[in-house]
Amino acid sequence: MKAMILAAGFGTRLFPLTIDRTKPAIPFLGKPLVGYVAEYIAKFGITDIVVNLHHQPKSVIDALGDGNRFGVNIDYTVEYPEILGTAGALDFARQHLQDDTFVIVNGKIITDIDIGEAVRAHKKSGAIATMVLKPNHKREKFTVVYTNDGAIDHFGPHATPVTEAELRDTEHDIVTPLMFTGIHILEPEILDMIPRGVFSDIVTDIYIPYIKGGGRIAAHVSEGDWYELSTIPRYLDISLAMMGACDMHFGRNCILNGAASLKDSIIWDDVTIGDGATLYRTIALLVECKLLKEIDLGRDERVYDPNFLDSPDHNHLICVDCGKVLEFEDDNTAALIDAITRRLGFRPSSKSMRIEACCDRLRTEGRCETLIKMRLEKQV
User: Are residue 165 and residue 284 in the same domain, yes or no?
Assistant: First the structure.
């Protein structure tokens, strides 16, 4: 049996963590996120893995290599020039998947869900595909999945938080909806249902029409732990939760110059923290952005779109060396950030983060290293 890790996404909601890499390649407590996924799959005896790539593919290849250090053998498919979606990716990798039952796992999750148990349930069901679900106890914003007699019935809207009326209702239990985990088990016959060489989504374009036509997609419900690192607040909160009693994580080759106040923060590799620094709920990283060398910001060139980011109250640049604050109205700095992000195709959300960058390093000729910090506001 083979497995496929979906790793082709853009990671827009994790920008600027993904400014020089794709989402599955970001480090998570000292290891690339996609490395956790590979090791997780290997625990169930599945060692032949296909990884699909599109956005910044080299970042994933650099993180995983041939898979040896994660106990697996990896083949890659690179979707170019267009990304193909969660079903189109299977079509593009069909030569790797067409001989036997295979497992699909999203490259942005960390979980201990029992794949072996899910495979056994899938085989017993006789279905062409099985979606692995879990109860959404916290009623987080994930699509509600409805089941009937062990099969997918239909998909609903996103789950909503528990209301006061539900809490006051003593006659009925609070409803816990089911959600999809990003893990499914499929028979190779599913490949015949996927249009060739075009973008297609496995749920929208394959499962839903198949179910409406009378087909059966099995549902396997697991109670295992499951984390999805799709946004910056989730990345930080899940990191801190998995660190236990420790409230700081340092990557390799980090330097602390003098006294600093550090709490509830993640420090990536090669970061230097200056004397007197205060970091709280911060992700600090050193980014190598080769695009800086390609961007020419002449004085008469206005590439800054004032609608690119939200209110300046939420967005400013601050030099991490000297502490100088530059508002986004500073055309040179704003234009540079905008040019980088537009070239990468990102539109970061500023409501949950402030981008802080060393303006001097950004503009130093011949250098392409940028120290970016993101301080996260606690979301209640």
Answer: no
